[in-house]
Amino acid sequence: MQPQSHRFKQNVSVALQDVQLQKALERVQEGFVDKRAAVVSTLPEFEQLREQGKAIRNHVLDNLDFYLQRFESQVQARGGQVHWAENAQQARDIVRDICKRVGAKMVIKGKSMISEEIALNDALEADGLDVVESDLGEYILQLAQEPPSHIIAPAIHKTKAQISELFYHAHQKLGYTRKLDTVPDLVNEAREVLRSRYLEADVGITGANFLVAETGSNIIVTNEGNGDLSCTLPRVHIVTASIDKVVPTLDDASALLRLLARSATGQEITSYTTFSSGPKRAGDPDGPDEYHVVLLDNGRTEMLAGAFRDMLRCIRCGACMNHCPVYGVIGGHSYGWVYPGPMGSVLTPNFLGLDEAGDLANACTMNGHCASVCPVKIPLPDLLREHRRRQFERKLQPRFARFALAAWATIVRRPRHYQPLMSMGIRILNRLGRGKGRFKSLPMLGAWTQTRDLPAPQTQTFQSLWKKQRGDER
Amino acid sequence: MSARERILNRVRAVTADKNGDDPARRIAEPPRLIRPDLGDDLVQRFGEKLTLGGGSLARVQDLQQAVVEIELFIRDAELALSLRAAPALKGLPWGDALEVSFGPSAGDDLVSVTPAFCAIAETGSVVLLSGEHSPTTLNFLPDVHIVVVESNQLVRHFEDAWIKLRESGEIPRTVNIITGPSKTADVEQTLQIGAHGPRKLHVIWIDR
Ligand code: SF4
After folding, report:
1. Closest Cα partner for B193 from B183, B201, B203?
2. How far is CA A68 from the centre of its chain?
3. What is the DSSP string of A68-106?
């Protein structure tokens, strides 16, 4: 998709006014957050597992060349092929060439964020291929012609009524003429419609939750079984994955799987965890004749070399966005590209540049919730602060913001001036807000007060309260 | 220079000074990682976790009873007494009540019966391997998937399944770890069973 991250502020304004979206976002908090907390509380080893997960991922990054080559040789030993792509264009071309060579007409897809990152569907459709997403959420979005708004639950922003409308229009030509209003009916209709598509498809494209160097396997984790059908029924299976997905052994993969489902959906494990290694073997009654893995760099080797290396530990669980108060009110589409929430705010400027996506990092409130739930302990707020520092260094913020920041920095470094100034400001605001205790609007802060009130401050600064209390105690 | 070389060179440039574990060694002898404590009753744990994921379990004493249980389960599901089984199960005492055929599924079978490679107590999962006698399509296309497991196939953790797998030789094309029926929560986060794969997963446990 065309990045819309530079429109972040406008996107946010729209999202805040969107009643349907706000309702859907409430469900994210209720659903994912509570379920994760419940499942984590039943596993006493969880904190140790996080530490171990971090160590495994760091070890991989320290030895990435070794593990990538080992993975490649294992895939080849089992009759598969590995293709390397430095950027999105190369990755698209590799997939397009395979589809052309095998004379494909129809492609069925499992969920893959890399496929979104390289905008694969558009490229394949431009070649005249019939491309069908099989993950229910992705299928809904394909009908709606929208990008995902969450990495685990891509259609989380859609309501039942909207989905019903989409199905009604899309499935009429297939003989489904009833407007559906229950979840079971909607899921069933999608099941029926998609079933024949799996059987028709020439090529199945899936992502990879992990790539295992030990065995040359790709792992996909699903509840629907859609990815598994997509990689079993068509005669060609293509895996699109980024180079950071590799892990050393089956044991390491298991250690990370223990973290993944719990962090993502609050399940101990999903219904299906599937390891594919090469094409079908001699004598196998089913499975694909060809197996390809496309390994994508697209800026990751640059991240490996710099301040954002820790971000490459990410296992794409989505916990950081589920727990982010900013994501919780602006939703995934506001971020304007493929990856939303805290992880997206770190990744997107790396992939698209600070000019396009710098604002994403500026929306963070530094509450640190994301880092405290991240299963591989990525210091997300620190990485977001690094983006801010670079913007300041490169003078990317608006002149006024830079001036205000510089002025604030000057004052704050001089406590003798800062403290009296703060208490004066607070007293003034307190007096102005007296009675209501909050401001409905404030000069120059219109954008802020448009969707919320500013609480009027107490009469004293934290510092003077602190001093007083300490004084009282002594 | 190829894309492969350029990517690997960039990686090498920033991973040149390595310390910590030797990667080749890690693959040859995977270090023991943290394994969650499971308690003592592994069979009970397996059953609990399987049910938690939406699957069901029936315990029987021998193969004869297993076939009876299969028939009962199909009757309960109000389906025709016809099924597609993995060729590996040709030796079961099938009898005449059930119409049984063997081989992969082309999408029109309502019930499948397959063996398992092992069962994992930690998560209540069954592990199925693809091969000449166990087609993968049987695990996903039918509406009802019945898996026959013998009690001596139970292992504690994932890692124990991998030990078994490494001992058995070559990793097959597909390893399926299955924990419950197909489900989705993609419509308004409402859990719905039977998204694309089986609507029911039933494990028949033969105590040996
Ligand atoms: S940054 Fe951490 S919490 Fe966020 S998706 Fe990645 S692994 Fe999950």
Report:
1. B183
2. 24
3. HHHHHHHHHHTT-EEEEESSHHHHHHHHHHHHHHTT--E
> What are the structural domains of chain A?
1-42+318-397 (no CATH), 65-141+198-300 (3.40.50.10420), 399-470 (no CATH)
Residues of chain B found within 8 Å of residue A249, distances taken between Cβ atoms: 26-27, 30, 162
- What is the distance between the alpha carbons of residues B118 and B128, in angstroms, rounded to a whole number? 7
- How close A155 comes to chain B (CA, Å)? 7
Looking at chain B from residue 81 to 140, which residues have their Cβ under 8 Å from any Cβ of chain A? 103-104, 106-107, 123, 125, 130-132, 135-137, 139-140
> Global pTM?
0.93
Report d(CA A390, CA A181) in Å as an integer. 50
Strands A203-206 and A210-212: unpaired
Digit-coded pLDDT (tens) for A330-368 = 999 999 999 999 999 999 999 999 999 999 999 999 999
pLDDT digits (tens, 9 = 90+) for A201-255: 999 999 999 999 999 999 999 999 999 999 999 999 999 999 999 999 999 999 9
ipTM score here? Answer: 0.97
DSSP SS3 for B201: strand
Q: Which pair of tokens denotes residue A407?
A: 């002025």
What are the Cα distances from residue A472, in Å, to A246, A412, A465, B189?
58, 27, 10, 52
List the domains of chain B with CATH numbers.
1-31 (no CATH), 38-206 (3.40.50.10420)
